[in-house]
Amino acid sequence: MDRIEKLCADRGMRMTEQRRVIARVLSAAEDHPDVEELYRRASAVDPHISIATVYRTVRLFEEAGVVEKHDFGDGRSRYEEAGDDHHDHLIDTKTGEVIEFYDAEIERLKTEIAKRLGFDLIGHKLELYGKPIPGAEPSDREGLIYKRHSQRDPEQA
User: Fold this and answer.
1) Could you tell me the pTM of the whole model?
2) Which of 18, 29, 66, 86 is a plausible cystine mate for 7, CB 3.0–4.6 Å?
3) Torsion of CA 126, 117, 119, 100, to 10 degrees
4) How far apart are CA 9 and CA 2, in angstroms?
């Protein structure tokens, strides 16, 4: 049983075989697919899955807190497994590449800002949008961890 299936079971959700397929596809995703891409991948596993089923299932998973929805500025909702590993996103506006990153300094600053404004921070989402600087390489600054994800499945390109 993959992580999303387990989270669904822990929340008492009824898991049909089609929901299981969608959960497995989402768990296996190394990118941030939209519903149409999830449908393409899920229907390759089970050709009887309809796009309406994928839409309903993703909405159900989102409401249950097992997936997170993102809007990376291209007009499409994209999804990823909700997890314990907090990270933020940098989106390349030219290619659509999504870089997941964790920066210790940002985490410290967000908490400090909330406290200065009289709040205990319970969560945040950070999405940065940019274009690559020619010849620039990512910094190896302490506390910065990142992982690159193409926007589209390489087989689709």
Assistant:
1) 0.69
2) 66
3) 10
4) 11
